[in-house]
Amino acid sequence: MTKNTKSNKSKHGFSMLSNLLIFSLFILMNISCNNATDNGIFSESTNVGKPKIKGKIVYNAQNGEYLLKGGGENIWANSDQFFFVHNKIAGDFILRARVRFIGQGVNAHRKVGIMVRESLNGASAHINGVIHGDGLTSLQYRQKDGAETEEVKSAAVAPNIIQLERKGNKFILSTAIEGEIFTSIDVSELSLANEAYVGIFICSHENDVAEEAVFDNVRLIFPADEGFVPYRDYIGSHIELMEVENGKREIVHSSPLSLQAPNWSPDGKTLVYNSEGKIFAFDLNTSLFQQIETGICQNNNNDHVLSFDGKWMGLSDHSEHPEGQSLIYVIPAGGGTPDRITAEAPSYLHGFSPNGEYLVYTAGRNQADHLDIYRISLLTREEEQLTNASGLDDGSEYSPDGQYIYFNSTRTGTMQIWRMKADGSEQEQLTFDELNDWFPHVSPDGKWLVFISYNKEIAADDHPFYKQVYIRLMPVDGGEPKVIAYLYGGQGSMNVFNWSPCSKKIAFVSNTKL
């Protein structure tokens, strides 16, 4: 949450009924589109340059995998032969995937990757981010039809995460070995047509050979416009689930509206999320959603939290405060009349204690620009300050055994993950790198932390919408964090507890125009 601008209040002028009707139409259109193709999110497949061995695609809708099999002499010099699965797209985009070759291969220069191409003829102007069989990774491009191919090589060797981004005439290739952060290279001032063919490809580099590769976690993203105004201009949302062990991702719910902060219920049946200041429950079995009654709380922040026993829900809402600042309330988990807990504002909720005795939250009490972590007894309503460091302390959440409170703090310059005893003592830093880390969530089995990380270009005390961010995992006692998800999101992606009860999955929001 950005502490002074936390509102998710709708400014689009739609009623909730209108939004639901629009969303229903969107779902029907999506179903029609998905049933119309065997190419997943892509509309067509083409054997570019008339390769001797024709390629094919097998899309598995159950696990989101794209199996590409194709031949082709090469993608190089002044003409190409390869197999291409694509859409025609205008304007800026981000296309990302996890990819792996099948088998040892015949030629060390067999290729897989992501391409932007002006036409489907073999000599077309294009640019592609490519991973070769021997690990060579590069941006290769032809500036006009029939011209010689040029290349910018990456320092990355044999990555399996690949992303190509277009920003006008600038093309950025970002790659990583899964678990690591991106390495990026770019080509600027490449004047390809605004509307072009965009997709994934395979090339065997041998006329008489077909190679195979599998792409999964494929995401085509249409980012927010340059100059969008945060908390006024929104783009669409996917709620995703991910298996932490193998990194498999699944989109379970999509909307052209801004959905934020999916909170997994303790019984594993429901995701609770925020949209336009209202709270909704999404049934994971039926894929149906309904609004939860929150009484006077109609401008909720993305800080809703369920108690460990699943009986209560805490809310941060700014409907009642005369200056629109956030206060904390508690309602029954299924909805009901809010009980106001904090007397003063601003107060931003983040967690219940496991025994249900306390709420823990971020609040400003002494100075407007100094936000610390507090806890409050639900019985006595007595408030207790737990941190008093310079900068911002935020994202507080109890461990399942109640011994620790994990949080994020800028006290050492960048935003890092910390923990302390439940009474505020023994405060210790757990992460130490250049990324800015937010919202640590402890797995129900008490073994792991997941948190969201921004690049160092983002201010340490900010966590904006619509940025390229990482979800990272590390042991609860500290250690080397590893990236488990690469996504376009940020604010609202995983502000609240997002583990499944079995500690095997997490939920989060990724963003794209829809």
Topology:
Blueprint: H1 16-35, E1 44-48, E2 56-60, E3 65-70, E4 75-76, E5 79-80, E6 82-90, E7 93-102, E8 111-117, E9 126-132, E10 136-142, E11 150-157, E12 161-167, E13 170-176, E14 183-187, E15 195-203, E16 211-221, E17 236-243, E18 249-255, E19 259-264, E20 270-275, E21 278-283, E22 289-291, E23 305-306, E24 312-317, E25 327-332, E26 339-340, E27 347-352, E28 358-367, E29 370-377, E30 383-385, E31 393-398, E32 404-409, E33 416-421, E34 428-429, E35 436-442, E36 448-454, E37 467-475, E38 482-489, E39 505-512
Antiparallel strand pairs: 1-6, 2-3, 3-16, 4-5, 6-15, 7-12, 7-16, 8-9, 8-15, 9-10, 10-11, 12-13, 13-14, 17-18, 17-39, 19-20, 20-21, 21-22, 23-24, 24-25, 25-26, 27-28, 28-29, 29-30, 31-32, 32-33, 33-34, 35-36, 36-37, 37-38
- Helix segment tally: 1
N- to C-terminal distance: 23 Å
For this structure, the CATH topology of the largest domain is Neuraminidase
Radius of gyration: 24 Å
Question: Main sheet: which strands, in order across?
Answer: 1-6-15-8-9-10-11
Task: Report the sheet with the most strands, covering strand number, pairing sense and barrel closure.
Answer: 7 strands, antiparallel
**Strand portion, in percent?**
over 45%
Overall SS class: mainly beta
> What sort of overall outline do the alpha carbons produce when their principal axes are compared?
elongated
- Tell me the number of structural domains: 2
What is the mean pLDDT? 93
Instruction: Give the CATH level 1 class of the largest domain.
Output: Mainly Beta
Helix content: under 10%
